[in-house]
Amino acid sequence: MTPNLQTSIPDTQHALKELFWRRGYEHASIDDVVNETGLNRYALYNAYGGKLELFLAALDAYYQERKNLFLRNLNDPETAPLDAVRRVFEFAITEMAERGTGCLMCNVATEECGRDPKVAARVESYLDEIRRAYTDALERAAARDELNNSVKPADGAALLIAVKLGLGVHAKNGADASTMLSIFNTAMTALSADSS
């Protein structure tokens, strides 16, 4: 069962997040932002500044949303750690396949705008926090003898990050959920104690 995603981010930030996720930074114009948010240019510039600041607000909204979702589910004491990892990935895969736009943070990490220092810092902060959460989950799996004993939890977490980034690219290029699940399942097989 995939986790439910409940958001409480402000409407403007939500609208910005959806616009930049759908169009990307380079292809979203200020006119698009005005149309999407319903705010006039003056109000947008007064509240946020320029296009980069609007984009950073969208990333912050996405980051908070995903942080709450992923960390809550990865740390769920009622769920076995590898099952929690699977649940988070299955949610992300389903969402990416339905949207056909990949993962917003994955997209940013691989696009030109990701080279901006402020954007790069946002992406790295997000990935570091998720990497730590995966590492913690895999450490708990190791303590339960559920992790392949040849895999260090930090290395397994790095693998999961790499798989997530790769799946984001696949989704953006039209991969369906079953194809992405197959890739993810291969990674999980390598992490599982059953394969050691």
Question: Can you describe this structure?
Answer:
With 196 residues, the protein is mainly α. It contains nine helices and no strands. The longest helix is centred in the middle third of the chain and has 27 residues. It is elongated, with a radius of gyration of 18 Å.
Keywords summarizing the entry:
9 helices; 196 residues; disordered N terminus
Record the SSE blueprint:
Layout: H1 11-23, H2 30-37, H3 41-47, H4 51-74, H5 81-99, H6 104-110, H7 117-143, H8 153-172, H9 177-191
Uncertain ranges: 1-9
Report the span from N to C terminus. 27 Å
Global outline? elongated
Question: How many strands in all?
Answer: 0
| Approximate helicity band | over 70%
State the order of secondary-structure elements, H for helix, E for strand.
Answer: HHHHHHHHH
Oligomer: single chain
Biggest pleated sheet: none
Mean pLDDT: 87
How many helices in DSSP terms? 9
* Computed CA radius of gyration, to the nearest angstrom: 18 Å
Structural class: mainly alpha
Summed up, what is this model?
The chain is mainly alpha-helical and 196 residues long.
